[in-house]
Specification:
The protein is an alpha+beta fold and 170 residues long. Helix content is 17%, strand content 32%. It is built from one helix and eleven strands. It has one helix at 22-50, and strands at residues 61-66, 76-85, 90-100, 108-111, 122-124, 129-132, 137-139, 145-147, 156-157, 159-162, 165-169. A four-stranded antiparallel β-sheet has the order 2-3-4-9, with no helix packed on it. It has a four-stranded antiparallel β-sheet with strand order 5-6-7-8, with no helix packed on it. The chain has a three-stranded antiparallel β-sheet with strand order 1-11-10, with no helix packed on it. A hairpin with a 4-residue loop joins strand 5 (122-124) and strand 6. The chain is elongated, with a radius of gyration of 28 Å. It starts with 21 loop residues before the first helix and ends with a strand. 15% of the residues are buried. The model has no long low-confidence stretch (mean pLDDT 85). Bound molecules: FE2/S2 (inorganic) cluster (FES). Residues 114, 116-117, 119, 132, 134-135, 137, 148-150 line the site of FE2/S2 (inorganic) cluster (FES).
Length: 170
């Protein structure tokens, strides 16, 4: 039996029948791999550059409690749990927030999430400031950075009073 022989025109010069030579094929492959690596690194590194700028906007009101029961001038912390839904899934988000009022009328609410890398800050009444245990950042009572690596203040959350209850948007 006679063996069939295949030949591709230009194969000896590294060219296929479609005109894509070996060198061009390898160049395309290297560019594609480089682009994939670059996009991956940019995506990961970009998270540190833009921080939470592209995070979903807060959409849910959390009831912090009766306004009359919140002690004036004292920092209060509260935990919350909300369900978030995106295009694909529903997830439960738990968090901590701090509220205070110096006059019982105007309330300030701050997220406990450190703006450096996301650890929870703690209120230190003896120092009258917030401390982040992860990299020893200090924030003022109103959330401004006093020291440490964070570049941005604590996130201030919107508040409203509804039927005597203090509500915070998270
Ligand atoms: Fe708070 Fe780094 S995460 S200082």
């Amino acid at each position: 039996m006679k063996k069939k022989q295949f030949s591709i025109e230009g194969a000896s010069e590294g060219k296929s029948e479609h005109g894509l030579d070996r060198r061009r094929f390898l160049e395309t492959g290297v560019w594609a791999a480089g682009s994939a690596i670059g996009l991956t690194l940019f995506g990961t590194g970009g998270r540190f550059v833009v921080g939470d700028a592209y995070k979903d906007k807060p959409t849910q009101w959390v009831n912090v409690g009766e306004v009359a029961a919140l002690p004036v001038g004292k920092m209060q912390s509260t935990t919350y749990s909300v369900r978030r839904k995106d295009a694909w899934r529903t997830s439960e988000e738990k968090g901590i927030l701090y509220v205070y009022s110096d006059d019982g009328v105007i309330f300030t609410a701050l997220s406990a999430i450190c703006t450096h890398l996301g650890c929870n800050v703690h209120w230190m009444p003896e120092n009258n400031d917030f401390r982040c245990p992860c990299h020893d950042a200090h924030f003022s009572r109103s959330g401004e950075v006093l020291s440490g690596p964070p570049q941005r203040p604590l996130i201030q959350l919107e508040t409203k009073v509804e039927a005597g209850q203090l509500m915070v948007l998270v």
